[in-house]
Amino acid sequence: MPPKATPERLTLFSDGVFAVLITILVLELHPPAQPTYAALLALWPRWVSYSMSYLFIAIVWMNHHYLLRHAREATPRLLWTNFALLFAMSLVPLSTAWMAQSRLAPAPVSFYALVFILVNAAYLCLIEELIGRAPDEAVPAWARLRMRQRAVFTLALFVLAALVGLFVPLAALALCLVCLIVYLRPGPPGA
Description:
73% of the residues lie in helices and 0% in strands. The protein has eight helices and no strands. The longest helix has 27 residues, at 106-132. The protein has one domain (8-182). The chain is mostly helical and 191 residues long. Belongs to the TMEM175 family.
């Protein structure tokens, strides 16, 4: 019987994808045409978009890192769930660039929030795959419940942000930022 597939390659591959995503984000930043602070300040939508996306990728990576510590075997189900998360994450640079180029127009901001919805839904599936069936000694039932509650709560806020983004883009970004703050600390909230 062959040995179980360990999750190390999954972790390394995922880390590489996160690094590439951050690299793509920074490549979308361009200096202003004029050598003045006013010209740099005029690019504020790009800086807001970049900063928020960088923070988003960093937070997802930290939480992903936390979750993968619970992986004991790289099952096909875990691999596909992880690929779903990475697919959703791969849309972050596109949505960021569109939002920045449009100077935070409604449809691009709404799409940006939709990408956050996809990432959050895939992350919820990863929680179920890695934490949902874990024994109580590995992850207590209260911790699993808190992680699920946080994921569902932020999923609902991202849905609200996608809708609000069609009318008040800055309010939608504020809702997305609230969700990011909720995830600043990986693992179960309140632990």
